[in-house]
Design a protein that fits this description.
The complex is a heterodimer of chains A (605) and B (296). With 605 residues, chain A is of the alpha/beta class. Helix content of chain A is 56%, strand content 10%. In chain A, strand 6 and strand 7 form a beta hairpin. The termini of chain B are far apart. The chains are: A alpha/beta (605), B mainly alpha (296).
Chain lengths: 605, 296
Amino acid sequence: MSSHTGWQALKVGVIRALLLAIPVVILALGWGALRGAGGQRLATVALINIVLVVGIQIFVGNSGVVSFGHVGFAAVGAYSMAILTSPPMVKRARIPDAPFGLSGVELTVPLAAVVSLILVAIVGAFVGVVVMRLSGVSASIVTLAFLIVVYNVLNNWTALTGGAEAFYGIPQSKSPWVVIAIMFVVLIVASAYKSSATGLQLQASREDELAASAMGVNVPGLRLGAFTMSAVAAGAAGILLALLLGAVNPNDFYLNLTFITVAMLVLGGKKSVTGAVLGVLVITVGDEIFRWIGDGPNLGFASLPLLPGVNGLFLGIIIIVFMVWRPSGITGNWEIDDLFRRRKVPESAPIPDDRDADFTPLPLKADDLRKNFSGVKAVDGVTLTVGSGEIVGLIGPNGAGKTTVMNLLSGILPPDTGTILIGDRALPRQLHLVARRGVARTFQNIRLFNELTVAENVEVTAHVARHRSSRALGTQPPRFTVPQLLDHFDLLPLAYRSAGTLAYGEQRRLEIARAAAVGCNVVLLDEPVAGMNEVESQSLRESIRALHDLMGAGVLVVDHDLSFILGLCQRIYVLDAGRIIAEGTPDEIASNPAVIEAYIGSERT
Amino acid sequence: MTELIQQIVNGLSLGSTYALLALGLAIVFSIFGLVNFAYGELITIAAYTMLLTSYMGLPWTLQIIAGVLAAVVGSVLMEQIAFKPVRNADPTTMIITSFGVAIAIQSIFTMTVSARPRAVPQPDWTATSVTLGGIIIPAYQILTITVTVVALVLMTVMLKKTRIGLSMRAAAEDFGAARLLGVRANRVVSAAFALSGLLAGVAAILILTRTGGVVEPTMGLGPVLKAFVAIVIGGIGSLSGAVLGGFILGFAEVALRAGLPSSVTGLADGVLFAVVVIIIISRPEGILGVKQRLRT
């Protein structure tokens, strides 16, 4: 079930790439053979577009951030190729004053391609550093701005690029085989990345950025990696295009190509490599058909009028229709190899009772936490401790500040003043490092990675725990396998369902399983039984207690269901108006007059 | 000194057009949450309507009225056909939809007229100029500045004094809350798109007087990108910010063109977009008004 090791991802990648490449290559070569030189050229352009669109998919599909700038990377690759490979004679005429003595340079095609790809990688990483911290539209706008800047530079840095007119002299290569080889590599990379643990973590951030960070996913770092990789693939497409055409022109790499690639990705399905390939095929065929119509074909009985630009109308309408009707594209998340995959429900896997005697969970200590929201003292001097392996409850009426305390302890909000320690070290300032210190949480309003499967939701945190654990930091690798954790919460039969399709109670349990996979020191549960009936809440209480006994981590439960808290916790804090008003065992709390006054009193009247 | 005043007038005139454009883009954004990249096509629609009516032999005044009306109708139709169904989708989906609308409209003009530029004859007086103390002010600049001032005053009055204006400002502030308080969402959104079309139409008239009436299918691209830069500079989501951003952009552009050596003046646009990127990264949460929700 844990199909996310490197080798398995590579295997999936090769299989998917073969399943996609074989029909595509047959189609392309067949079309070329049937339709002569023009057909061959069209087929090669389609193959190059697969490189470009699948390349874009690596970033867009996994991160969920739409890029309008990848054509800019294709432009950088293509122009770099043009400047490095064209004969010095051409360059002395065209760009005599090129900087860095480039007008005298002439590299072989393979060497120039390597240099160009390195250049694209550098530019890609540079843009990626800007994009990685932004979300949604802001990131998309930055990529669009990058495209415009590239276009502007190509048109105006005449000394280097030759300006707006075409730059000739690139040694042409019309053989489709180089393109096919590169396409195959890009298909493998994209498919393997999607199936890898790294890709899965980035997909988790696509589903819910905040939850992914809180579960230990380094969202900016992963975005940067995927962005750079995907920029290089786009650069490769640009290089291939330059080699096919023998000449480059700024207008070849601007909004037209951007719109076409966006249409291809959106129509096929941006979350799927199969979808990206399918999108290229459908749009290429559609574009050809509408070009033919636009040229005013003679149908024998009648000639159609000239309709130049009708293919553009087709493109525009396709984009609108898919955005309205099916924003996830034809395939959604589906991949071609899913046709052949049989997923058996994993066998029952009880958690073995073999607690690691060497491992002592670290306590969590908060001292004098304060947090104001524009003058409102949400948290006003809270000091609390979750001892090693202790189950602690935090109760309080609505508005007492429970959720804010939770957000402070889990690193989502920084306190105005006060300290939080895990063991004897301060809580890390960066959110994703908190989970890596073995502190994980659930959310009051359930934040699962909805489009990922149940198993993958837990796999995300299990991976974090596997790879970021060290005795020095006081964390240990996960003690339970993903199936064991799922089985413990009765989720095993649902392992391959999308998390978003689960029933409410199941989603709550999955969130706890997800947090438990990484929270080896403290698991923070934010209203775990909210909205549950008595039976469900009792059964969940038993699961939490049993898990606690098996894994040993401390637990902090925030809830206002008093009987749940009293029945589960060893020690309880009572919060009111941002302050701790009482602390004690369940018995002490149940009989504390201040608590009855502030909290229970209102319910007993 | 004369040179400086001359450049200030140039900046004022260019900035006026940008301010109108930016305001039209910002109105839809603040209420609908959409960066409408098909906004430029409203200018194209207005311009081609003027071309058509000039072929029909209508006088210039009727041409411009027809052009503005076409942009208003086009804007409202755009919303009804393409944007209403994605109203609740994420902002990226809406942007891609607006790209689709832009391509479709451009293609329609390529199909029905031509991909090549055409010219709408402009009245002779737009090509004249006034000389004031050594400063030459072309008539189109005077027209641009005057029309912009009038349009901004009327817009302000409308937004502050009329019922629909008040509803729009409330919706721009918080759409959900405004709806709960009885603001009719569909009407406000339609009004926002209509107003956006109106401003685009007026801007189209001004652009044509400046360019001598050149129309082509892709003519909307430049203006919409400039309007976008202006609203980013002015703080996206804010209407007065958009106007201010438009004027700042106009002056910045005139200064860049005057200040940069002539071999690199073409890079001015590149510089402006680099500035946009810097503004966006310096306000990672606030930009586009879509603040990341931190409460869990």
